Amino acid sequence: MEKPLCPRESGQFVSEHSRDVFIEEGGVQEVAEMLYRLRHSEALTASGWKKANPLLPETTENALNWVFVVDTMNFSFWPEKEAEQCEVTYKGTTYTGYMTLCASITRAVEEGVPITDPKYFSQMSVEELGLVLRSDNEIAMPMLQERHQALTEGGRVLLEHGGSFRSFISQAGNDAQKMVELIVEKIPSYRDEATYEGRRISFYKRAQILVADFWGVMEARGEGSITNMDWLTMFADYRVPQALVYLGVLRYSDTLMQVLKNGELLLSGDRREVEIRGCSIWSVELIKERLQKLVQERDGQTCDINATVIDFYLWPFAKEHHKEMAHIPIHHTRCIYY
């Protein structure tokens, strides 16, 4: 079987054949200009990453295993009805969406549950995980069975490779590309692939986030340096594409817009779902290239802002501007990949 295109090549291939999602040149330029103005701000650094992850444990080893647990279950938080959100309150702050997962894992650690120990989470029961992920209200976190399967499977892989995320990932050296390839090869739940126009493609959203979070933990603590970070793309989910449409970078066809406004569920691998994700990846690559060009032309310097950092900026941006973006529908796909 042919190897799938890597995420960047997949994004380019999809954008060249897309029928319902289009990249707008003007929007790419505008966002590049916006990021150029922010180029010296903390928002576009690993410190910005740390700020966006306030629930991370202090010690590096605990933080790395925490990141593995969270990223292995980092999928499908959108509610069936907007008004009915799963909520988790931790230290006086009530969280929704992805942050409910972070809060519930940190809460469990505080309650003495060894949730970041692979020996424990590789064999925990569905009921035990349900207790860890319990909501403050009657709305449960979706896909408990799938989260349990992904986490126990991931835990068993870590036990086979030294018993911690750090020992597992160290097999790839310090190379971001090799890290993604290792994760995808060894842990099936991370194999985020599809077939589009007769080609096997990949997005590897969670695998790339896991590597980026590893980088974020190490950078924020001044430990080690990861090479080849520029191989990573943005993380193709449902929140960032909405921001890209809002910012004029992506445009949906009238037909697709109507389908999304009607609340139609798109299956994982559906052509339209693949086009939303693929064009998101390629549009951020174009923004990154344009930004690097602006820095070179105007400042005479090289720009090391990569697609990961741009994603780390766009995701919180989408959360902060969700009211202004409410008229742009998010695509809904229930799956373990994002």
TrEMBL record:
Top enzyme category: hydrolase
Reactions listed under catalytic activity: queuosine 5'-phosphate + H2O = queuine + D-ribose 5-phosphate
Documented EC number(s): 3.2.2.-
Gene Ontology molecular-function annotations: hydrolase activity
Keywords: Hydrolase
Transmembrane stretches, start-end: none
Name of one Pfam family that matches: Q_salvage
GO terms (BP aspect): tRNA modification
Function recorded in the entry: Catalyzes the hydrolysis of queuosine 5'-phosphate, releasing the nucleobase queuine (q). Is required for salvage of queuine from exogenous queuosine (Q) that is imported and then converted to queuosine 5'-phosphate intracellularly.
Family: Belongs to the QNG1 protein family.
Name recorded for this polypeptide: Queuosine 5'-phosphate N-glycosylase/hydrolase
Organism field: Nothobranchius furzeri (Turquoise killifish)
